[in-house]
Amino acid sequence: MTSEVVELLQELIRNQCVNDGTPESGHEHRSVSTLIEYLGVAGETFEPMPGRQSLFYRVPGSEPDAPTLGLAPHIDVVPVDPSGWSQDPFGAEIVDGFVFGRGAVDMLNVTAAMAVAAKPYLTGEIQPRGDLLFVALADEEGGGKYGAQPFVYERWEIAEVDYMLTEVAYPKMSYANRPAIPVATGEKGAFWSLLSSAGTPGHGSAPFGSDNALEKMVRAVQGIFAEPMPVAITEEWRDFVENLNLDDFLKEELVDPDRVDQALESLAIDDPLFARYAHAVTHLTISPNMLKAGVKANVIASAATANVDIRALPGVDRSFVDSFLYKAMGSARDDVDITPIQDFEATKSPIGNPLWLAIEDTVEVIEGHRNLLPTIMNVATDARFWRKRGTIAYGVGLYDDRMDFSEMLALFHGHDERVSVDSVEKTTRMYREILARFLGP
Ligand SMILES: [Zn+2]
Predict the structure, then answer these.
(1) pTM for the full predicted model
(2) 157: exposed, middle or buried (C-beta count within 10 Å: 0-12, 13-18, 19+)?
């Protein structure tokens, strides 16, 4: 028999709320209807663009001074390339105990678990001590423009909470020397940039001595690719490495700014996915991903641009990013302008508070240990909008032994995204326990 959380997850997957980044994609109103029907209580919707619906409930607590809690999962998913899948990406079929489908780990599994755990509070069956906000958000995968961002900016009287749970729900650590559950406590900042260069148009048949915008941009981008990315070893990374079951020499290297790069090379031989993650959470990463120049094959390029994805750890700001880019561009630095596309510094929440304790206690009851690992994510989530306003936000989940850390990294936005039925039920139990401890009856 399929449990209610699995049925809800299946329905959310089948709704195909695919967000391709365009305003008219997403269609999150479908999953809003599913959630309203499941919860059996009319909620309120927030819809800054037709079809881009978020659903929210705010249940008042019985004690005015008790801390308030938000559950803020997202309901959109990223597109798929069906040719890489062994199952229908929106069929939500259960095969060998796994629910297959886009969103199975990012993050409809948690969305379903949160809805099931929150239901008795939303229906009035249980009154929380502090206010409970449940908000199922649109457009997380598009950067929150039609979801979390306007919701936080325009509806703060509803959105304001002391604590919040959202993405990412990591499975337990790979190569751990003792059991540990990573908890997302922060995320890197985004400093996406547009580089542009100018030249003088002329006939492409006579390029001698020409002033070609593309030549300048290629030099600039080559310089960026060649420059080693700056290392930053965070305390979270130190804790993470401390928990790894690797030989001591490699562990020392992994937290040494001068030796981490060579350590990652050797790590990559056995586990390239984990090495990629480890690199991302120990470096300012810079990836030029789009290059555009010229108007025609026989016209010297008078303009060129490059879009660069830049992600920074806590403590890095725009001026650091720009001075690094100028240095890396070398001889092209005077020919290229940098325009910021995104300026969002890394965000991070402290630990050791009532919510952290509630998670520790819950993990102890279910897993038999209370070893939580604060983790900085390399990706951006909706948590950043709340953290900027002072909310303490985490991402947490539980999986069974059939999902390990590196494997989940591959499934995020990957082919054959799937989650085991047991994992979804375990995460649901976790949220029930956390809510009971934090909000009490
Ligand atoms: Zn997500």
Answers:
(1) 0.93
(2) exposed
